[in-house]
Amino acid sequence: MSEIVKVEHLKKYFPVQKSFLEQLFARKMSYVKAVDDITFSVKRGEIFTLAGESGCGKTTTGRLIIRLLEPTVGEIYFNGADITKLKGEKLRLLRRKMQIIFQDPYASLNPRMKIVDAVGHPLEIHDLAKGKEKKEIVLEVLEKVGLTPPEQFTNLHPHQLSGGQRQRVALARSIIFNPEFIVADEPVSMIDVSLRTALIDLMLNLRKDLGLTYLFITHDLAVAKYISDRIAIMYLGKIVEMSNKESLFLNPMHPYTQALLSAIPIPNPERKRKRIELTGEVPSAINIPQGCRFHSRCPYKRDECSKKEPRITEVEKEHFVACHFIKS
Ligand SMILES: Nc1ncnc2c1ncn2[C@@H]1O[C@H](COP(=O)(O)OP(=O)(O)OP(=O)(O)O)[C@@H](O)[C@H]1O
Ligand code: SF4
Ligand SMILES: [Mg+2]
Fold first, then answer.
1. Which tens digits make up the pLDDT trace of 296-310?
2. What is the pLDDT of residues 277-296, one digit of tens each?
3. Which ligand is located closest to the Cα atom of residue 53?
4. By CB neighbour count within 10 A (0-12 exposed, 13-18 middle, 19+ buried), where does 287 fall?
5. 58 alpha carbon – ligand 3 mean position (Å)
6. Mutate to test the pocket of ligand 1, among 30, 59, 223 (most ligand atoms within 8 A of CB)
7. What is the pTM of this model?
8. Domains of the chain, first to last
């Protein structure tokens, strides 16, 4: 499988806003290290998931890749071309091939726009279709996302739809240009549990029918297990473990991954799994601990852990881990 997206040594540091007095006395700027040197690639046609607790840098990574944010350091490649510094018309054209769906469909849809306009608006912005032609295309994509008959939806406003229907509208808008790559940022986390599987299945079907590739973002490992081909676990801006789904769930190696997986309920009570409780707060992304950034919460930490940062290495075929004590 060829690579559609590749990121190398990607970093995003946000400067911390300080008051005038703080700025006067501070010796140097402080930064939120939201993404702190990550390298990975997404293969064409796969669902690659970024998972991890709140604030670990998942959304920032997704926004960097589709160039909604400028990286501090690092490179982003799309179909082999370096898109890190793309600007103007070339960036506008790239936007047709890379789309994003946000967690909250209500916030991402203009409440005053009818569905036909909300979904078809990108066609007008890109000067591709308007009027009757736009409506025809909108009807077609609404049908593809299961809003049928589509004519019943075009004149409604977002508040007249359920959460699941609104997320289908957001999905319809994201596929209107026939994109190749979609960042799906927690697309089901605000939807009623009973509707989640249907929406995920719809995304899986669209992948097959339209030849899509997804970067899927979730904090929910049960969802990750259902949908992903490969998974990267992030902690404080870094990838600590990355592999295909089977290997990650059968043989989680990083202590953080083990703790996250131990919290997923198992349907069969006979096969009880011991829950690994993580103690200690997640450190701030402004003051990342020295050494292994997980050491303040790691049940297996040793002296060395607070001194030296582990590098992510391939421990088994295509299974990467960042821990001093896990080696191939
Ligand atoms: N525009 C910004 N300015 C300053 N800090 C930011 C900005 N965006 C994100 N951050 C910080 O960067 C870190 C990573 O945030 P990000 O939103 O990428 O995390 P996340 O993994 O998506 O979390 P969640 O699961 O809560 O959505 C957090 O500490 C966050 O507060
Ligand atoms: S390097 Fe040390 S602190 Fe970090 S995960 Fe491994 S054992 Fe834990
Ligand atoms: Mg997020």
1. 999 999 999 999 999
2. 787 778 899 999 999 999 99
3. 1
4. exposed
5. 6
6. 59
7. 0.94
8. 3-228 (3.40.50.300), 250-328 (no CATH)
